[in-house]
Structures are given as C-alpha cells and as structure tokens.
Amino acid sequence: MKEKIDTSVHFLKEKGIENVAMGIVLGTGLDGLTKDIKVLFEIPYEDIPNFPTATQAYQKGRLLYGELEGVRILAFQGRFHRYEGFDFFEITFWVRVFAALGGKQLLLSNAAGAINLNFNKGELMLLTNHINLQGGSPLAFKGAETLGERFVDLSQPYNKTLQNKARALAENKGILLHQGVYAAVVGPQL
Description:
This protein has helices at 2-14, 88-100, 160-173, and strands at residues 22-25, 38-44, 62-68, 71-77, 105-107, 124-132, 177-184. By secondary structure, the protein is of the alpha/beta class. The strands form two sheets. A five-stranded mixed sheet has the order 2-3-4-1-5, with no helix packed on it. α1 packs across α2 (88-100).
C-alpha cells in the first residue's frame, strides 16, 4: 500500500508538482471553478501510476495543478465511489497521495440530497460533522497502521477556523449557507 502511494507521489513530483498548499475536489456542478484556476498542467488519472480510473461520464478523471487566488493547488476532477466497486483504500487513495505531497487543507464538494425539507436543490451546506453509513472505513483494513494512525480523533473532523471563514464569506457575498451533518451512504442515490 505504501509503495503504491510512494510510486504515485514520485511520478507527480517528477512531473513538477511541489509546494501544494490546498486540494479541491471539484464535485458535481463545480467544474466551472476551473476557469478561475491558472492551470500549470493537467494529468489524466489513468496516466498516474496506481490511481483508480473514474468510471462516471460526468467525472472528468484528471488532476489539475495550478494556482487559485495566488495559492498553489491540486484540483481533482473526479473521485471514486463505493457503488462503482472500489474498495475503501482505492476511494481514499488520492487523499493519501495529496497528503504525501505535503497537502494540508482539502476542500471537498459533492452533490447530495437532503432530508431537511427546508433545503432546496442547488443550495449549499457546510458540514459540521458526518456519519459514515457505508458499511466500512478507509481505516479498517489489514495493514492500515503502516499508512498512519488507525484510530483518528473525529471529535472535530472539520477545521473550525476554515468553517468560520466559509460562513463569513457566504454572509459577505449574500450566499445562503446551510449547516448540517452529512450522512454518507453507499450511493448512487442522492
């Protein structure tokens, strides 16, 4: 497992990826953000050793390396889901590669349904916590301890400072930003 991550990281460093400050997952509906990224180069996932290949037509399956608002970023166009047949190590592989490249902050986005009847389609929700209902964990497999801590403190899984910045930005821009707990299910239902 560690060798797979190291091989991917070595490949990406040889391509010139360095000093990554932030990662952004461009979930469904956020591809428009790419117009604001000064893309230095892009790499299709299938060219990166050991990377899974995106199977959904709307998931472009490529890694963008560039700058956004003066910050060096990796933008992931496409991710991997349990309902596509990937195991939990494969689903989180790119996160582990991102961390091994020095990435510390990761902005995740996706389209999801809601059980709160006050939420409307297309509105934003800031996660305050999550509940994993997927029947497994990316920390629960033989050898997981070789990749880092198996028992991760999830009492505050999301950075409070960044959450406060998101709330302030939304308020400043007049954007309705709900807050809630994300219930992660296998999918593909929303």
